[in-house]
Structure formats: structure tokens, C-alpha cells
Structure prediction request, 475 residues.
Amino acid sequence: MGGEGQVIEAETFRDSVGTMDQTGKRKWVFPRKPSGNYTNYRTLVAILLLAVFFALPFVKIHGNPLLLINILDRQFFILGQPFYPQDFFILALGAIASIVFIILFTVVFGRIFCGWICPQTIFMEMVFRKIEYAIEGDRNKQMKLDRQEWNAEKIWKRFLKWGIYIVISLVITHWMFMYIVGYKEVFRIMQEGPFVNLTNFMVMILFTAAFYFTFAWFREQVCTLVCPYGRLQGVLIDKQTINVYYDFKRGENRAKWRKGEDRKAAGKGDCIDCNQCVVVCPTGIDIRDGQQLECVNCTACIDACDEVMVKVGLPKGLIRYATEDEIEKEVPFKFTSRMKAYTAVLILLVAFLGFLLGNRGSMEAKFIKPAGASYFVRDGKITNTYNYTFLNKSNKDQKVTIKVIEPQHGEISLSESGTILMKKDDMIRGTVNISFPEKEIKLSKQNVKIGVYDESGKLLDSFDTYFEGPFKIQF
Prediction:
């Protein structure tokens, strides 16, 4: 039948622009430059996200970086708050909450993240692809340039494009390192030159090469072959998930446009088989074949189809954000029980994470007896020596004092003055002697609790340890 023949023709066309041919060989995708409302919105989102990416390394709160993930030196700052290896469980919980959020978001909204927020998409479509359009032209010109011999035009265009790609990859690498070691350290390495910092220089070259390879050649293969999120969506998406869908009930049977024809009377759908939704797709798929792994919900096909529908006088929305049930059964979107369950878990995780962050404390104190150390008795008092380690987690300097909480009548003797000054985000170590009257110590090893207080007398942290005394036989 005519409708079936047209579907086969569209399938054949898809094979001609897909990322792989029938033998499994890579085929280059030359997407047409998209335009339309969704493209404009995505461009605004991309500009905002790129501005955030390039500005964040220079933003500080209370003198601390807004975001710094220095794994090598174990320095972590999130929203200006310092985090330490001791706080790893909080970061782990935050990672779990993020995963649950991604799952919930995907269950409800599909791969909107991929098309609107993912760094791969932002840099590929909004930076590198735009440079390609500016230098080589739109789809047809790029295909023509690709087929022609290596003449002067092709050489200068390709080398100009590749040269700009290398520069941008270098910039991305340097900014990425600012999130790891800070912008001052990156500027210092740049000023000193590669020979002074050979290891850092080689690492930056490797990352620059990786970025260049990804955006100059690998491109959409990252989304279709490498990204685990793309594989995960196949498990999470169901018929109630919002995605970019082709309304096959309205579109089929697809047929070429004929002016003045009554398509409904002729048994034809609204799809005029112009293939504009295919040529504009950055992953080379045909959205009319249904939901596919390669679709990143970039909305380029929606804009392309809406543009054609307006030109031929048909309603927009043949390709749109919708659920499968909405198209198949004309059932409106419904917040399902599974979505509610994911939302409840997410709210609990976020609330618990907020509780942990709020009660993380501004001080961490430890009192450890030195290896092999024992007690000594003098003037009717038993004395133990402890090595202390204080970590100031706050964003301000603090003066602290040490007191014995339990049992009572404990005396503190510091090698320095009674008050210890701690700089913000600083760790100090020292030695303290703790004494008790002999009559207070009933056991050879007795539990004690030592507290650290600020100037106002507020308890910042406490530590449970033991106190050694002479062995006594109890009758």
C-alpha cells in the first residue's frame, strides 16, 4: 500500500543519516541548523549555564570557594562550606539523593536533562556546533565540503575549525581544573610554564585531547554508546513518562503535500513526509519510528515540524512533548503511584541531608592517649596525657577552651595558655594533661568525656575516651 511504501522510504532515509549503517560502520551526521521557540529557550538556558560554569570558580563565600572538589589534597567546599573526609557520609548521602532525584525526574520527564542541561549537549550544540555552522555553513554546505577534494577552501575551513576547537578545549580544561585546585593555582601553573609543572602540563594536555576528541569526532556517540544515563532511561521510562513523541494517530498515513488536497478524505495523515524532523536531529534518528535510545529530547524535531506545519496550514504539535498514553489512548498526564513513591523518598533524603548539614557542627575534637603512655601520680592527683586534634569547620576564627564534662573535678593543664585560638578552616594539634583527685578514680580504666567550648561557653564538640589509674582490688 502507499502508506507502507512511504514508511519504508522514510526508514531508508533514516539509514542514510544515522550514526551507523547496516554493517555497523560509523556514518557522520550533518544536522540542519535548528530554529524555533524551543531552540531559543534552549539557547537562553545554555547561555545561563555557561555563564555559571565560567563564573563559579571565582565566586567566594566568607573567603572560601563556592565550589571546590580537590580530591588530591582532600579539600572540599560546597556552597562555601568546608567538607572533610570525616564528612564523607554526608556527601555520600547527597550523591544518593541526587541519584534518586535523577530517577524521579526521568520517570516523569524523560531525558529532558540530556537535551537541556547535560554539559555534553550544551558544549556540543551551543558552542562547537555553532562554530561549525559559522565556518562551514549549514547541513548541505557541510555535506558538499565533506565530499569535495582537499582543495584550498576545504583546508582552510577545516584547519580553522579544528584550531578553534583546540583553543576551546584548552579553555574548558583550564576551567575544569579551577574546580579542582582553584583559579589561583591554575593561574600560577600557567605563569610558571610547562617545564616547571611538567606533570600538571601533561595532565592538561591529555584532558584537552579528550575534550577535542569528544567534540570534534566522537560527538553523538557519547550519548548513544557511552553515557550510562541513556541506557538507564530504558528501564525508567514508561507510558506515563513525558517525552518528545510523534503523534502517529494524527500523522499516519504519511504522504507528500499537495496543495488544495483534502488529506483527511484521501486517507492521509498530517505528516507530509518532508523528513525535516530527521535532517535536524543531532543523533540522526527518525522520531517517527517511536521512542528510541538515541533521542536526547533536544526538541529540534519539534521546532522543525512546527515550522513545516505552519507553512502548509496544519496545526502545530504533530511532534510534541507528550506521554505515550496521551497519544495512544488520549489519556491526560497523571502523577502515578510510582512517581509519588519516588517523590516521598526524595523528600525524606533531602530533609535528612539538610538535618545532617545543619547539625554538622563547627568543631571536631579528638583526644587520643599517646601509644605506651601511662598515668602518673603527684600531690594526690592522677594525671593522664592526651594528644588532641581540633578541626575548625566554621567560616570564622574561634577561641576555644577544654573542660572535663564527666566525671566532675577534672583539671586541665595545657602546654600553652588556657585558651586556644583557631583560624577558620584550620586544624591544630597539641598536648593536654588531665588530672583527677585519687579518690575520684575508682577503676584502672575509667570512661571520661572531654568537651571543647567557645568563648560564650557553648559546647562545640565532645569526645569520649578513657582515663587510666592504679589497679585497685574491690571488696
Notes: Residues 152-181 form the longest helix (30 residues). The CA atoms of residues 107 and 338 lie 9 Å apart. The first strand starts at residue 60 and ends at 61.
